[in-house]
Amino acid sequence: MNRNVSSSLGELYRRGSPGEFPPYFVPAMMTPPPRSPTRSSLPHEGFGSRNEYWNRVQSAIVTVFQQKRIDPLELPEILEIVRDLVKSDVGPFIYEFYRDQLLKKGMVILREKIKHYRDKELLYHLGELWNKFFREILPLIQAILQPIQTKELSIRQVTLLGFRDIVLLKTEFEACVGAGFEIPPAVTQMLLVLQRLRESLPPTENFFKVESLLAQIVDPYLGVRGYYEGGSEPIIPATVVPEVLLRSKSSGDILGEMRKSKPQMHRPLSMQHPASRVLSQHVRQQSASNIVIGPMLDTLEEYEPYRRHSLACYDREGSEV
């Protein structure tokens, strides 16, 4: 790692603990002593040594995003370093450093692999990239940073959000969906996984972008904004739609400014569109065909604001069709 990256963790430390960072540690930060980490000594050593160990963690994370091989014997040692760093003075800043710097760098590395593709080729390579990310990269990142405990989004959640915001929504994927190309199963799985993420309340603009894309692929689809039938807009809008949480343009945080409020209990989800009455009548008239769709719209209660629902059909004996 270069010196600019190395000193970034020190900047976080100084910014978060004014007056507690001895000035004589600053030169050591630029020239960390060549020592091997030990579990007993790491939390008590100077900041320069801790920064040396953190550089090893950074290098391992970037290597994972580059899809290069990491020696399996090195992983336990990296995990021990992270565990000891979490116990040290810089522990509270590791999560922020990963979210705001390392994660962005890693996602740009992934995006570079598909940015030149268009149309069907983009869909194919996006599916391949998602499989690599979801099956190999994400589990390794979680394993390396497992000791980090946070009251905010987990390492898994924030990494998936990085893929959504920096990789998926920065490509021409929306145009591919609108053009009617066949969507690979891996891409459908990707959207279903990403749509489950709830990074804030109210939802962000990107949350609704993914819902709109997914609704054009999964038909029918019941989302936060209402009931979809293959289009980007709901044919039956929900009565209560949370306002959109816009991203902070002045912040470098990929998640924007999150509103720290408690979720309110939602009443039963009702629809204000006249078609809702038609659907209710249609359900009651299904006895002639021996099929009942239920419970569908008028009996659905929401206690999790952004839960995804699907529709199931049953015959009169109660078995699923």
From TrEMBL:
<dbReference type="InterPro" id="IPR016159">
    <property type="entry name" value="Cullin_repeat-like_dom_sf"/>
</dbReference>
<dbReference type="InterPro" id="IPR013745">
    <property type="entry name" value="Bit61/PRR5"/>
</dbReference>
<dbReference type="Pfam" id="PF08539">
    <property type="entry name" value="HbrB"/>
</dbReference>
<dbReference type="GO" id="GO:0031932">
    <property type="term" value="C:TORC2 complex"/>
</dbReference>
<comment type="similarity">
    <text>Belongs to the PROTOR family.</text>
</comment>
<protein>
    <submittedName>
        <fullName>Proline-rich protein 5</fullName>
    </submittedName>
</protein>
<dbReference type="GO" id="GO:0038203">
    <property type="term" value="P:TORC2 signaling"/>
</dbReference>
